[in-house]
Amino acid sequence: MPQRLKLAVLAGAIAISVVACATTTSPTGRTQYVGGVSQEQLNELGAQAFNEVKQQKRQSTDARQVRYVQCVVSTITRQLPPNWQGGWESAVFVDPEPNAFALPGGKVGVYTGIFTVARDQDQLSAVIAHEIGHVVSRHHDERITRQMGAQGAVQLVGALLGSRYGEGAGNAAMQGGSVLAQTGFLLPGSREQESEADIVGQQLMAQAGFDPRGAIALWQNMIAATNGQRPPQWLSTHPNPESRIRELQQRAASLMPVFEQARAAGRRPACG
């Protein structure tokens, strides 16, 4: 089936499923509206979006970097509930932006620029656990469901890109059939979602045996790397950096017993 037709069929299925939207509770206890798409459809969209990034960006040929990221991803995902654990795939993309993302369907992408600020395995685990936190917190589902409710399922295709970059870009997305454009998967989440991913991610890294204080050092490095300039897109909707670091410090202190228990149980990552 041609790609455009396949996406059109998928968009139609999504439009029909909007009636099944439901209210649920997020990992931090807030109310979420999800279910605009089924998990199967969401996973398919995630896989297609991941393939788009692979087509657009060159992948690293540095075997050490690739193994390093795979190790961190597998160590973290082993701490997820059983229904979230299987089939995670990662890729390292050659791009100087200090960026990373995770998608439904178990896809993780890391840009080589992240290694300039994530300087050890604990700091890299903070990045990856945060991104995986978005997936397991159903933030992609929540964003698509909210978009459907705001603009109607018929306008889903191109709506997210159009709202961010203008009508011309939205029309181009509709014509080009870009999953990234249609779903906004790689655009920053809301501050509420970003804060929630911080909480979930820091918990995950501690359970996996990574030092939760690594998240503090990571964001200190991120702030220093901006050198007073406009922060990278990855930071654009995140909470105030100083407030964020204070929150990470407070959580790290409370998570030290979790980290110590993980180490005592033999979870001692040696990724890099």
TrEMBL record:
Keyword Protease tagged: yes
Needed cofactors: Zn(2+)
Name of the protein in its database record: Peptidase
Cofactor: binding comment: Binds 1 zinc ion per subunit.
Family from the record: Belongs to the peptidase M48 family.
Signal sequence coordinates: 1-22
Keywords of the record: Hydrolase, Metal-binding, Metalloprotease, Protease, Signal, Zinc
Peptidase M48 domain sequence ranges: 66-251
InterPro entries: Mito/Outer_Membr_Metalloprot, Peptidase_M48
